[in-house]
Write a sequence for this structure.
């Protein structure tokens, strides 16, 4: 039996339409969208201000369009510089310039910017949830300090942690442990010099290196790099990457310096391993999972934010309005969200991309070698066509350096 049975409970007038656990990216924007639609929302997170956290550090074009559809882009990205081209390089030379919009911003700044957009009607609660009980009529949430909150619907937006999902009877299946290893660090050019491009992607050179790509982009005035690999924590190269990052990088990506120019890594290197998992036994009355609580996204695939935006858009603009129109929160209502074609395709695409990127980066079979050659040929044909039409020079010329302004609300 749940510990909730013994806890002091609030009176029925405290019943919110929706209780959301987790005010990270997904929970916060879900609360905004629901509150703007007139629902009463209780949003609970253990941190009053989202702390520095190594997560998504830029917002791509698809993601900014998703935020825009939810009416949140301008508010969240106000004052954040946007670049509209990405320079792509490999083997020490430039391959192509892709036209695509990107905002560089730390994860904490993104989440805290979203939190500042929360309508005053949201009951914003700081505290650690230790227990939940769910059912077809009413959901209950117990905090470590003894407070409890009730709602018609419980949204679990609690991220990677598994404890609360387990309390709801939901299981997790690991698809692959330590699927990828991502590094984050700052890069600096020598004094008096600048990096040539505001957003730069350098692709891994050989399958045995197990390096997918390095993305370097400005956050404010600092060039930030995310290096996506399929390596292990315990390898000597990983240790070197933590202790002497510039040397470790140039050892495996010797052409990096030729395209980006000389650089040093001034501060500490952050590193994060990611398991791939999916939820199971999740069709339960009264409770839905969104974002990382439902399924992880490999950082190299860059789809975690895309997935959570899809979850929020479908849940909050399509399903919750239907569910709230009639009494009860039975499993047939909840199932409609998980059966949503748009959500299913978004989750499938993220899983597929995670597997594909790992395989295309590391597999050495004849089939994958041929596939890589085909992809390289297709890229070359694209670039040649762009050069012939003058597009490459045009794109190069329009690469703009970021404005000097900072980003909103550093955490
Ligand atoms: C290194 C790295 C790089 C990444 N890069 C990218 C990228 O480039 N592009 C991309 O799209 N995605 C990327 N991702 C994935 C993306 O960051 C995640 O998919 C996204 O942050 C998930 O957001 P969320 O709201 O689901 O979870 P979170 O942001 O983790 O929010 C969970 C919230 O729940 C709260 N919480 C948890 N348990 C409790 C409790 N018991 N009581 C109260 N509160 C609780 C936490 O405090 C937290 O605020 C990356 C991930 C990593 C790790």
């Amino acid at each position: 039996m749940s510990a909730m049975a013994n806890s002091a409970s609030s009176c029925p007038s405290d019943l919110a339409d929706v209780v959301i656990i987790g005010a990270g990216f997904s929970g916060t924007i879900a609360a905004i969208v629901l509150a703007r639609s007139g629902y009463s929302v209780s949003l609970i997170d253990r941190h009053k201000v989202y702390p520095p956290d190594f997560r998504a550090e830029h917002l791509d074009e698809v993601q900014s369009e998703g935020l825009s559809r939810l009416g949140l882009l301008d508010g969240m990205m106000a004052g954040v510089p946007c670049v509209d081209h990405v320079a792509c390089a490999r083997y020490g030379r430039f391959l192509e310039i892709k036209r695509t919009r990107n905002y560089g911003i730390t994860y904490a700044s993104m989440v805290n910017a979203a939190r500042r957009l929360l309508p005053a009607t949201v009951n914003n609660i700081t505290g650690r949830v230790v227990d939940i009980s769910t059912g077809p009529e009413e959901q209950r949430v117990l905090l470590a300090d003894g407070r409890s909150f009730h709602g018609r619907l419980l949204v679990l937006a609690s991220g990677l942690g598994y404890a609360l999902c387990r309390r709801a009877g939901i299981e997790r299946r690991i698809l692959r442990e330590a699927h990828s290893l991502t590094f984050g660090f700052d890069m600096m050019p020598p004094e008096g010099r600048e990096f040539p491009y505001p957003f730069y992607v350098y692709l891994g050179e050989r399958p045995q290196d197990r390096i997918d790509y390095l993305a370097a982009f400005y956050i404010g005035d600092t060039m930030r790099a995310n290096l996506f690999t399929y390596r292990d924590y315990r390898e000597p190269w990983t240790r070197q990457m933590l202790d002497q990052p510039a040397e470790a990088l140039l050892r495996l990506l010797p052409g990096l310096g030729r395209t980006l120019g000389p650089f040093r890594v001034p501060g500490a290197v952050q590193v994060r391993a990611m398991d791939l998992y999916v939820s199971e036994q999740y069709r339960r009355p009264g409770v839905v999972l969104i974002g990382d609580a439902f399924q992880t996204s490999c950082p190299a695939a860059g789809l975690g934010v895309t997935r959570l935006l899809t979850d929020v858009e479908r849940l909050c603009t399509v399903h919750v309005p239907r569910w709230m129109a009639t009494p009860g929160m039975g499993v047939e209502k909840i199932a409609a969200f998980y059966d949503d074609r748009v959500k299913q395709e978004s989750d499938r695409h993220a899983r597929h991309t995670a597997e594909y990127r790992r395989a295309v980066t590391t597999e050495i079979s004849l089939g994958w070698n041929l596939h890589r050659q085909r992809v390289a040929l297709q890229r070359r044909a694209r670039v040649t066509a762009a050069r012939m039409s003058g597009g490459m020079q045009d794109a190069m010329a329009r690469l703009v350096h970021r404005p000097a302004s900072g980003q909103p609300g550093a955490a």
About this structure: Confidence is low (pLDDT under 50) at residues 1-12, 399-411. The longest strand covers residues 171-187. The CA atoms of residues 127 and 145 lie 7 Å apart. Residues 21-27, 44-47, 50, 54-56, 128-129, 157-159, 161, 164, 182, 272, 274, 291-293, 297, 299, 302-306, 308 surround flavin-adenine dinucleotide (CB under 6 Å).
